[in-house]
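testing teh design pipeline on a random one, pls ignore if ur not involved
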């Protein structure tokens, strides 16, 4: 029960971060908002790590893989923040939910895992769900929708690398290195895009980092009490918080096509998760 509670709390906190990012995107560049997400996350995470989890911070045996993981997540964050600056939070997140489908599709190549016919069929159905949301040929496809879909693709590869690292590196170290890599890379472009924030904007930029930090810490705590595969279906709870924030603060509410696509993608993702759990039991 603790695992579920911590996991659900994480999916309440992280959409709040997205809400602040969307609000700021009307006045600040997306890259600057992404920088704030990394800078303040590292700023708040470092003291917690060193005071509470110092013994767990043993240096990685796979620094190149950690760097690639950090770079991929940074790219995913830039894509997502750009997407929500143009389209609704719910639509962007729905398209990003293809990440578990990407993991299933590429796990035979990168992880050596066997994927049966049923899971392949679920992947195909999930991608059909994303097409329902975008509706190519029926509505004009914009860069924001493609960017949101790209977020899911990048996040899928991020999850694959996370699985590879989980057998060798402590998850707390992985979290810290991912933040540091992103913060260092995105800081190099800040002099070219920086817009001076006012006090209110500074506070919101800091809030993005705070909620990102709290959200990821809740995720780590949830994984102490249950396997990631068992908790995976609860990640879809994020859409509920997302819809609430989008409706009350931005007057955005998903249309029927987005709801239909969301239903198809979520159903596919949950089915894949259940099949993975059954496959592990057989082993």
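output:
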């Amino acid at each position: 029960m603790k695992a579920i509670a911590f996991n659900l709390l994480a999916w309440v906190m992280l959409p709040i971060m997205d809400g602040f990012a969307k609000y700021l995107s009307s006045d600040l560049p997306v890259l600057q908002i992404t920088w704030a997400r990394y800078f303040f996350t590292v700023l708040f995470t470092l003291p917690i790590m060193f005071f509470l989890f110092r013994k767990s911070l043993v240096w990685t045996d796979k620094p190149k893989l950690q760097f690639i993981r950090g770079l991929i997540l940074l790219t995913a964050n830039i894509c997502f923040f750009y997407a929500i600056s143009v389209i609704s939070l719910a639509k962007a997140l729905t398209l990003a939910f293809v990440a578990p489908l990407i993991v299933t599709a590429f796990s035979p190549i990168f992880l050596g895992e066997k994927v049966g016919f049923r899971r392949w069929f679920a992947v195909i159905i999930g991608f059909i769900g994303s097409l329902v949301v975008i509706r190519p040929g029926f509505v004009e496809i914009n860069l924001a929708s493609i960017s949101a879909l790209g977020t899911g693709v990048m996040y899928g590869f991020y999850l694959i690398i996370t699985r590879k690292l989980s057998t060798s590196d402590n998850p707390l170290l992985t979290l810290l290195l991912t933040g540091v890599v992103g913060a260092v890379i995105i800081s190099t472009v800040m002099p070219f895009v920086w817009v001076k924030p006012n006090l209110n904007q500074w506070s919101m930029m800091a809030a993005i980092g705070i909620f990102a930090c709290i959200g990821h810490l809740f995720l780590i705590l949830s994984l102490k009490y249950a396997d990631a595969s068992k908790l995976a279906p609860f990640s879809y709870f994020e859409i509920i918080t997302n819809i609430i924030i989008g409706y009350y603060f931005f007057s955005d509410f998903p249309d029927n096509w987005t709801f239909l696509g969301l239903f198809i993608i979520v159903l596919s993702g949950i089915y894949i998760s259940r099949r993975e759990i059954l496959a592990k039991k057989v082993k």
